[in-house]
UniProtKB/TrEMBL annotation:
Comp. bias regions, Basic residues: 1-20
Domain Large ribosomal subunit protein uL10-like insertion: 126-196
Family stated for the protein in its record: Belongs to the universal ribosomal protein uL10 family.
Name of the coding gene: LOC103722773
Record-level Gene Ontology MF annotations: RNA binding
Gene3D superfamilies, A to Z: 3.30.70.1730, 3.90.105.20
Phylogenetic lineage: Eukaryota, Viridiplantae, Streptophyta, Embryophyta, Tracheophyta
InterPro entries, per database record: Mrt4, Ribosomal_uL10, Ribosomal_uL10-like_insert, Ribosomal_uL10-like_insert_sf, Ribosomal_uL10-like_sf, Ribosome_Assembly_uL10
Residue segments, region Disordered: 1-22
GO cellular component terms, semicolon-separated: cytoplasm; nucleolus; preribosome, large subunit precursor
GO BP terms: nuclear-transcribed mRNA catabolic process; ribosomal large subunit assembly; rRNA processing
Keywords recorded for this protein, A-Z: Cytoplasm, Nucleus, Ribosome biogenesis
Name this polypeptide is given: Ribosome assembly factor mrt4
Length: 229
């Protein structure tokens, strides 16, 4: 009987080496990008969608390069203080690399970067745990948009439904979600069935660096632990 691949031993030294090589590749890539591009931005991703972000990368690949990964590795690559920074003043970016952030290296003008990011967005279905942007309530009555085969599935999502002559009926009003509350798995699935998109994928600029300027963007940023140096 052939051995299961799941039971094959993994050599720890190899995985550590691969992880180290990956980190070194990021460090080297960022250091090279510092030479190839004129400005650097820290950004955050809201409601990340991989395919749409890939489109953004492709759109800007001739003028820019994105880095996502360990904040600590990116900080080391830029430098975390005046003493070890790779460009004058660039260590200031490192203090904003926390949480879900990334780096954008680009040769585009600041105004063009801001315009692109402000216009860039993709509406999509919200996932479990996302915050509902509105209250959605279904009123008692027929749900003619669903075929009778959907009745068991809708029942599993908590909807009070029944079949009446092959037509699904909602026997009482039902609140799918409340505005401001986190979506349950059932709520997220029901909203998808209803075609209601509550998530918007956006990219927000946090701060930017160029050889003669450093600037913080946006409102509501927690700067309490960021030094003014």
């Amino acid at each position: 009987m052939p051995k299961s691949k799941r039971n094959r031993p993994v050599t720890l030294s190899k995985t550590k080496k691969k992880g180290r090589e990956h980190k070194e590749a990021i460090v080297n890539g960022i250091k090279q990008a510092l030479e190839d591009y004129s400005s650097v931005y820290v950004f955050t991703l809201e409601n990340m969608r991989n395919l749409k972000f890939k489109e953004l990368r492709e759109q800007l690949k001739s003028s820019s390069r994105f880095f996502l990964g360990s904040n600590k590795v990116m900080q080391v690559s830029l430098g975390r203080s005046v003493a070890d920074e790779n460009k004058p003043g660039i260590h200031k970016l490192s203090k904003f690399l926390r949480g879900g952030t990334g780096l954008l290296f680009t040769n585009l003008e600041k105004e063009e970067v801001q315009r692109l990011f402000e216009e860039f967005e993709e509406h999509d279905f919200a996932r479990t745990g996302s915050i509902a942007t509105e209250k959605v309530e279904l009123k008692e009555g027929t749900l003619e948009q669903f075929s009778h085969e959907m009745e068991p599935f809708l029942r599993k999502q908590g909807l009070p439904v029944r079949l009446n002559k092959g037509i699904i009926e909602l026997v009482s009003d039902f609140v799918v979600c409340e505005e401001g509350q986190a979506l349950s798995p059932e709520s997220a699935r029901t909203l998808r069935l209803l075609g209601i998109k509550m998530a918007t994928f956006r990219v927000h600029l946090v701060c930017g660096w160029s050889p003669d300027n450093f600037e913080v963007y946006g409102e509501g940023l927690d700067l309490s632990d960021v030094e003014s140096s």
